[in-house]
Amino acid sequence: MGYRVVDTDAVAPEPDRPCECRKLSDPGGLDEAAINRFRAEPGEQLPLAYHYHETQQEAFYVMDGTLAVETPGDTYEITADDLFVVDSESPQRAYNREDADGPVTVLAIGAPPADADAVPYDPNDE
C-alpha cells in the first residue's frame, strides 16, 4: 500500500504556459493518469493550442469561476462544481473569457497520460 499528500501550492508552475499550470502527476507518483491544476486569468487559455488527443480522454473539473471550452460545434460554459469530459480525437480549446469577472481554477485529468499525443487543430481547415 502507498499513500501520498501533495501540497499543490508547493509544486512550481510550468514555464512558458498561457496560464498558471501545476503538473501534479509526478509529485503524486501517478503513472496511469495525468493531473494538472490550471488557474487562468480573464483572456488566458489553458492549453498551449487548440488541439485533440489521439488516445487520451480528458476531464475538466471547475473548482471556481467559469471555464469556456470551444469545440468545432459549440462553445460550452462550465461553472464551478461541474465536470466537462472530452473524448479522444475530439478537438477543444479551454479558456477564461476576456470579459470574465475573475480567474477560473480547473483540475484537469487525462488518461492515459499522453502529453506527446496532442495534435494541433485548426478550425479553419474544416
UniProtKB/TrEMBL annotation:
<feature type="domain" description="Cupin type-2">
    <location>
        <begin position="38"/>
        <end position="109"/>
    </location>
</feature>
<feature type="region of interest" description="Disordered">
    <location>
        <begin position="1"/>
        <end position="25"/>
    </location>
</feature>
<protein>
    <submittedName>
        <fullName>Cupin domain-containing protein</fullName>
    </submittedName>
</protein>
<dbReference type="InterPro" id="IPR014710">
    <property type="entry name" value="RmlC-like_jellyroll"/>
</dbReference>
<feature type="compositionally biased region" description="Basic and acidic residues">
    <location>
        <begin position="14"/>
        <end position="25"/>
    </location>
</feature>
<dbReference type="InterPro" id="IPR013096">
    <property type="entry name" value="Cupin_2"/>
</dbReference>
<dbReference type="InterPro" id="IPR011051">
    <property type="entry name" value="RmlC_Cupin_sf"/>
</dbReference>
<dbReference type="Pfam" id="PF07883">
    <property type="entry name" value="Cupin_2"/>
</dbReference>
